[in-house]
């Protein structure tokens, strides 16, 4: 009877040390592409598979991060997930991905599942209300754009400053009556601070403005077109709009194009997020860029740093940036 | 010294059977929300965590699916990933997500990592060339939109039929000179069959046409605007364009808007994929819808079915559908 193939057999056959083979298997340290290929070839030939599950069991914690997203098929969340997985992979973490559809009971279930899988930490990208006391978990839980009263680390973008930048830019472009499509009816979230910054600038500069929260169901459907139409028909004097996400801004562009309202001549529009959608609209969108790469890097760093405790309850606020494109007047691309 | 908390302790404290607690933990069968909450509360109170890693070790295969995507921040791939994770979750699978940036050496590494983690199967959504013999793996590997010569199950949409539908629709709308932005220079992929279907209809109906492959780097950057401009300046007689993805179609809309070419009056445009972007353009995009939900369901079913062997080498071709919107003439939304 053949005995089980071990890492020593692989090393011997490949003419390498056990340490080198181990580095290839664990994807740690510098390994040339040729060495990697050689080890993989021998592993296949000898039918050797390192058992990551056994390794994790002996360590009682895996090198896996759990990520809980509300949706994936949404330009902001797919942008954020793309960056999170890039950073996690660079840090030699695997990613267990969960999608909650913004349902809090699903989130709780996922958190239990991730704990049972001994993840090194959880990144929770969801504005839903707290359903379990995150600070009672014995692993780091990093929240992104989530209102939190629990003692865990949170990351948000500077939503207030985003509102300030948008209002100042619209006013500097000559707008006389402003509108902010902001927030979600009946829901409290960090993004609500965009309206505060926006309102403060308008009041400071004596510019009339309105703030109209959007409907959650339109966000789910990624279609605010009926909502935009309803509001803008009521209010034809508006000549500058700050929309709280790029999808809402794109729907506003569609309304203007359909109704022969020239952009940026008669209407100036600013979005939020700077997702790929912003650059693909015609005219393309001026928008507030979220620091998505920075958010992702910080989230993974906090998991590494807080590995043995979850006492870090700081709220990290990362800066946003105004990206000027055609919907507020720049010509060309 | 306190002994380790067991599932029996949880059941006793919750006043439920061990079977019910086990069903909650494993998320199997019907469990009311209240029962679920009760079990989770007791688990937290007793600090009980089922060890999924130990469970997987004893089974030698986990209830985890590995998904390898080339990118996530791309409307088609985020749409596909969203559906895949929904279907996997419904099937009580967890998902280990990997992003390859279309680099074949990264793909090989991920496959080894997923094998080491004893995944139940791998879903490989990448058009890259084969780098390891997928049929030698002892778990099901399901490929999506990938050219395969290996004996594994593959799923593609009916790319040929997509090309036929696009050409027939443009011709029926009155276009006289057609162009297809299709494929990627120097790369062979199932999507190339779109050009075949398109060309066949044009030749059949004696309509002049050109097929121009796009540049890989523009796809990575999600910006084909320079490419579209270069081609359309050369060829002002074109009045109907079939673009091989919605991003390319959106860039074509931008070119027309910027150059005062009316859509659909002087130019009719069809995209491919029916991502959310298609409905958010102004005018919004007529496009060929990929059966993304069907693809995701079939991929997970094939993993369940082929669990103990990987002998299923069929290629599954799922039907596409023409979605008519404003870029080929429908008015309104």
Write the layout of secondary structure elements.
Two copies of one chain form a homodimer.
Chain A: H1 7-14, H2 18-26, H3 33-45, H4 52-59, E1 64-69, H5 75-90, E2 94-99, H6 104-116, E3 121-124, E4 141-144, E5 153-157, H7 159-172, E6 178-184, H8 193-204, E7 209-214, H9 216-221, H10 225-234, E8 240-243, H11 246-258, E9 268-273, H12 276-280, E10 286-289, H13 292-305, E11 315-318, E12 321-323
Parallel strand pairs in A: 1-2, 1-3, 3-4, 4-5, 5-11, 6-7, 6-8, 8-9, 9-10
Antiparallel strand pairs in A: 10-12
Helix pairs in contact in A: 1-2, 1-3, 5-13, 7-8
What does this structure look like?
2 copies of one chain form a homodimer. The first copy, chain A, folds into 3 domains: 7-50, lambda repressor-like DNA-binding domains (434 Repressor (Amino-terminal Domain)); 59-157 and 292-318, Rossmann fold (3-Layer(aba) Sandwich); 159-290 and 322-328, Rossmann fold, CATH 3.40.50. Helix content of chain A is 42%, strand content 18%. Chain A has helices at residues 7-14, 18-26, 33-45, 52-59, 75-90, 104-116, 159-172, 193-204, 216-221, 225-234, 246-258, 276-280, 292-305, and strands at 64-69, 94-99, 121-124, 141-144, 153-157, 178-184, 209-214, 240-243, 268-273, 286-289, 315-318, 321-323. Chain A has a 6-stranded parallel beta sheet, with helices on both faces. At the A-B interface, helix 3, helix 4, helix 5, strand 2 and helix 6 of A face helix 3, helix 4, helix 5, strand 2 and helix 6 of B.
């Amino acid at each position: 009877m053949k005995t089980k193939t071990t890492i020593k057999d692989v090393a011997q056959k490949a003419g390498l040390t056990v340490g080198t083979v181990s580095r290839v298997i664990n994807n740690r340290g510098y390994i040339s592409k040729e060495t990697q290929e050689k080890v993989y070839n021998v592993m296949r030939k000898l039918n050797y598979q390192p058992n990551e599950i056994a390794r994790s069991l002996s360590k009682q914690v895996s090198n896996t991060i759990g990520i809980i997203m509300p949706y994936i098929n949404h330009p902001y969340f797919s942008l954020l997930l793309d960056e999170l997985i890039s950073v996690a992979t660079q840090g030699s973490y695997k990613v267990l991905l969960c999608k909650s559809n913004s349902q809090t009971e699903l989130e709780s279930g996922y958190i239990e599942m991730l704990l049972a899988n001994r993840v090194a930490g959880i990144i929770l990208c969801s504005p839903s209300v707290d359903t379990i006391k995150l600070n009672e978990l014995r692993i780091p839980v990093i929240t992104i754009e989530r209102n939190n009263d629990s003692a865990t680390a949170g990351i948000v973008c500077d939503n207030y400053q985003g509102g300030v930048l948008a209002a100042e830019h619209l006013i500097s472009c000559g707008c006389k009556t402003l509108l902010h499509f902001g927030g979600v009816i009946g829901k409290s979230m960090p993004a609500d601070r965009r309206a505060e910054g926006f309102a403060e600038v308008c009041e400071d500069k004596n510019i009339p403005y309105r703030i109209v929260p959007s409907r959650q169901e339109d966000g789910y459907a990624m279609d605010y077109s009926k909502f935009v139409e309803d509001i803008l028909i009521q209010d034809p004097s508006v000549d500058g709009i700050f929309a709280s996400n790029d999808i809402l801004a794109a729907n506003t562009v569609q309304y203007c194009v359909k109704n022969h309202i020239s952009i940026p001549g008669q209407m100036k529009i600013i979005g939020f997020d700077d997702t790929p959608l912003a650059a693909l609209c015609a005219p393309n969108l001026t928008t507030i860029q979220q620091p998505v790469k920075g958010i992702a890097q910080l989230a993974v760093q906090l998991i590494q740093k807080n590995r043995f405790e979850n006492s870090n309850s700081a709220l990290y606020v990362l800066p946003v940036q105004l990206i000027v494109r055609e919907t507020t007047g720049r010509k060309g691309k």
